[in-house]
Amino acid sequence: MKAEHEIEAGEANSKQHSTSSTHERVLHINRGLSVMDLVLRIIAAVGSLGSAVAMGTAEQTLPSFIQFIQFNAQYNDIPMFTFFVITNSIVCAYLGLSLPMSIFHIIRSSAAINSRIILVIFDTVMMALLTAGASVAAAIVYLAHNGNASANWFAYCQQFNSFCERTSWSLIGSFGGIIVFMLLIITSAVAISRR
Questions:
Q1: What is the distance between the alpha carbons of residues 195 and 190, in angstroms, rounded to a whole number?
Q2: Residues 6+ apart with CB under 8 A from 115
Q3: For 56-60, 66-70, 75-79, 140-144, which range has the lowest pLDDT when averaged over its residues?
Q4: What are φ and ψ of residue 68, in 5° steps?
Q5: Predicted confidence (pLDDT) at residue 189 exceeds the cutoff of 50
């Protein structure tokens, strides 16, 4: 009788040990996902900030054969580029504000399911906003480089090549940010599903 109780106690202890070991493993994986979330947020913030600054400072002036007339190209001459700068600025501000919550997930990875759900919702909204801004800017950059003969739009970049080069480079950080947001959403979904 005593031997049976000892066997049952031993089985209960091994079950508790395997359950606590599994729980610790899940916590380590979630902490790793939280660290990855923080790193991805910093990368996306740098990319969107770089895109906004590159586009916002894009300007070129061309001299004319008439001494008093100059041709000037600025990002705010084209409303789609202004929209691009605004969307990248909003996304960068959001990412900066979400960093403390991401740090909280690293510290308290077991109690962070509700805040992760909130971040997934806002990440999805910000990804959509960033996609809209990057898409309209990419369409205008394409038209500026190639023009459209059907609509009689000439290739703007034949004259303003420095301006167009800068606007083209500014798209890289924004489209990179979209990819990072996809990874953030997947990371958060995996962390939520492991609860």
A1: 9
A2: 101, 104, 105
A3: 66-70
A4: -95, 0
A5: yes
